[in-house]
Amino acid sequence: MKQDVFGQTVSLTRDATVADWSATQRAFLAHGAATPTHLARVLEAEPDFALAHAVQGLFYLLLGRRELVEPARTALATAQSAALRSGATERERHYLAALEAWLAGAPSRAVAGMERVLESDPTDPLAMKLSQAIRFVLGDAGGMRASAERLLPAYEPDHPARGYLLGCHAFALEETGAYEQAEIAGRQALWLAPDDAWGLHAVAHVHDMTGRARQGLQWLTGREEAWAHCNNFRFHVWWHKALMHLDQGEIDEVLDLYDREIRAERTDDYRDISNGVSLLMRLELEGVDVGDRWEEMAELSARRTEDGCLIFADLHYLLALARTDRQAESRRLIRRIHHDARNSADEVGVRMGVPGCDAAEGLAAFTEGRFEAAFVLLCRVMPQMQHAGGSHAQRDVFERITIDAGLRAGRVDAAELLLKERLIRRDGREDAYCATRRNLISAAREPDCSNRVSAQ
To answer: Which among 401, 422, 423, 425 has the fewest CB atoms less than 10 Å away?
Structure first.
């Protein structure tokens, strides 16, 4: 038995493999593009290391792609065989159980498995980050915060993963409305771990939620090295920068970032598609002509209509299809969401039902110009949208569509109430979207100019 860089005992026999395993974990904590390269070296050098196979399976499932479920099952079977051949520690068996639980349709039990690891050793950063990552998919911001706060006392100032834990804590604080604390924690995270893109982006979230786009741009500018090493997460950080430019009305900068950075690689990862779809939708809601950019999003989304791994992904696929009038694919996707909601009792199926069914029908109604129906459906499901996963900033596109549906349906009072609730969640600070809609409502309530002229 040897110890990795974080002091965790691992059933590896070679120092070189331990170094590669440590590098795998460091890269995962930092959302590094090199994570799979390091992991592949570990698996090649010591194929009986059950933990590495289990982690590979969990990584597959985090990608939210139907075609990766079978490789995840293979990883579990390989991990189980390796554990029988060479033995596995109790810690490693919890990782195997977590993968098995998620494959059985219960990601929340996978989280519980990671938490059991952390009960035995709270300074296990791999379990910490996996717990956070799976909770994020489930939309469990409160759980993310509670987990991070249970662990903080165990991470001494010199612990090599303390910065990454602070980054996770910062994001969870922001998602639960503790904006000032979140900004402080995120800045501390980046000071301790300069490659902690998650902590850096948590501070960007704070700027978004508190209507400080210009300061947010200042925060990100000059810190590009903090996310240059990332996997496709780097596209998401550029997406945040584009949102800040959009809030400032700097449309040319938004479109330039879209073409040059956000869609620099024409990937079909659901997170990259959601970046593109939600940004294009925000632009269109502001009356911006986005040209033919929807076509790429729709082509990619048309291939994912039967995916069904995450409702968050499905709703973005649906928007891309609907905005390009691909009615056959849109209806097929909606039918599949309803089918999964009726026929699957696992946690994914539950989310297909709520918020999935009403959200999908509401988004389709909006794109078809049926604004009253869209408003009713989306209002009904909006309180449950967090269960779709993602962040407040990512789900904000659905909130904007809901408010705009109300305005276009003439439901001015109801739309204004949603704007007020949005303002409360955002610490009472108004962003450009909110200000513009409030001005539209004020204008709608003014007496008609022609009537005033007639009266004179």
So the answer is: 425
